[in-house]
Specification:
Elements: H1 4-7, H2 16-27, H3 55-60, H4 63-81, E1 86-90, E2 97-103, E3 113-119, E4 131-135, H5 166-175, H6 188-196, H7 198-214, H8 235-246, H9 260-263
Antiparallel strand pairs: 1-2, 2-3, 3-4
Helix pairs in contact: 6-7
InterPro entries: Ub_conjugating_enzyme, UBC, UBQ-conjugating_enzyme/RWD
Pfam families: UQ_con
Domain UBC core: 66-214
C-alpha cells in the first residue's frame, strides 16, 4: 500500500498540500477528508426535492406484454373448448384481430360457410366487449344487414374481466344460427319475416347460405398472411393430407423390456395376488 500515492490520479488544480495530505492518508489506508464548501459550490439537493417516480408510467411499458399474454391464454382456452364448426386464427399483423370461419351443420342455416372478423379492444380485458363482423353480411335478425356486425352486446352488456372470455363470444356467434332471437333486431326485415312469413324467411336464408358458399373461394379482402382463404380440391395437394387425417392410428405394442416404472407393467403374475411373482 506504500505506492498508492504514486498511482493515484490528481485532478487539475490540486495543490502540493493536497497531494501531501492524500499521500499521507494513502499510507495510513484512510479516505481523504471531505473538502470544505467554497462559495462557488452548490449544496446537494435535499431528498425531499427529488420528484417521486411515477410507477404507473413505468408499468405502462409492460402493458403490451400483458395484453399479448392475456390473448395467448384466451387462445389456449379456445382450443380446449373445441367448439364444433368454429375455426379462428390471429392476424399476423395484430393480436387484436382474429380471422374466423363458422360452418353451420344443421338447422335453417345448414351448409352455411360464414367468414368473420373478431376485433378485440386495445385495452382488453378491461374495455368494452369484442366486436364480431361477418363478411359478407348474413341475413339474420341480430346481424346488421349493411356492416355485417353481430349484436354481441345483447349477450355481453358489460364485459367482465376474468368472467367473460373470447371463446364465449364465438360460442354465442354459433348459437344465434340455431336459436333465432328477434327482440330488438338489427335487421328488422329478417325479424318480421321470421315472425310473420316463415317460408319467405327460409327462402332468404337459403339465398344467404348459397352466397356464402359461392364467395368462399373469393380472395380475402385483407392482404394479411393469416387471412382465411379456401381453394378447390386438388388431389395432388390435399389427397395425402386427407388420408393422413382419416387413417386410424395402429396402437403400438407394449415393449416388455422397458422399465416397469415407465411402461406401467405390473410385477404381479396374472391369476396370482402375490406381488413380485413375475419372472
Amino acid at each position: 500500500m506504500g505506492n498508492i500515492q504514486e498511482q493515484m490520479y490528481y485532478g487539475e488544480g490540486a495543490g502540493d498540500g493536497d497531494k501531501r495530505s492524500m499521500s499521507r492518508q494513502g499510507s495510513k489506508k484512510q479516505l481523504p477528508q471531505v473538502p470544505q464548501q467554497e462559495g462557488g459550490m452548490t449544496p446537494p439537493r435535499p431528498t425531499s426535492a427529488i420528484p417521486p417516480q411515477d410507477h404507473n408510467s413505468s408499468m405502462a411499458g409492460y402493458g403490451q406484454f400483458f395484453l399479448e399474454y392475456a390473448l395467448l391464454a384466451e387462445y389456449n382456452q379456445l382450443h380446449k373448448q373445441k367448439l364444433p364448426g368454429v375455426y379462428v386464427i390471429p392476424s399476423a399483423k395484430s393480436p387484436l384481430h382474429w380471422f374466423g370461419v363458422l360452418f353451420i351443420r344443421q338447422g335453417l342455416y345448414q351448409e352455411g360457410v360464414f367468414k368473420f372478423d373478431l376485433l378485440i379492444p386495445e385495452n382488453y380485458p378491461d374495455g368494452d366487449c369484442p366486436r364480431l363482423i361477418f363478411h359478407p353480411a348474413v341475413f339474420h335478425p341480430i346481424i346488421d344487414p349493411i356492416s355485417g356486425e353481430l349484436d354481441v352486446k345483447r349477450a355481453f352488456t358489460k364485459w367482465k374481466r376474468n368472467i367473460n372470455h373470447l371463446w364465449q363470444v364465438l360460442l354465442y356467434a354459433r348459437r344465434v344460427f340455431y336459436k333465432i332471437d328477434t327482440k330488438s333486431p338489427l335487421n328488422q326485415e329478417a325479424a318480421t319475416l321470421y315472425e310473420e312469413d316463415c317460408d319467405m324467411f327460409k327462402s332468404r336464408v337459403c339465398d344467404t347460405v348459397e352466397l356464402s358458399k359461392l364467395k368462399r373461394y373469393d380472395p380475402p379482402y385483407s392482404d394479411d398472411p393469416h387471412a382465411i382463404k379456401f381453394s378447390r380440391w386438388d388431389e395432388s395437394k390435399h389427397g395425402e393430407t386427407l388420408r393422413t387425417i382419416t387413417t386410424p392410428k395402429i396402437p403400438q405394442e407394449v415393449d416388455v423390456n422397458k422399465n416397469a416404472q415407465t411402461s406401467g407393467l405390473s410385477w404381479i403374475k396374472p391369476g396370482n395376488i402375490q406381488i413380485f411373482s413375475k419372472d
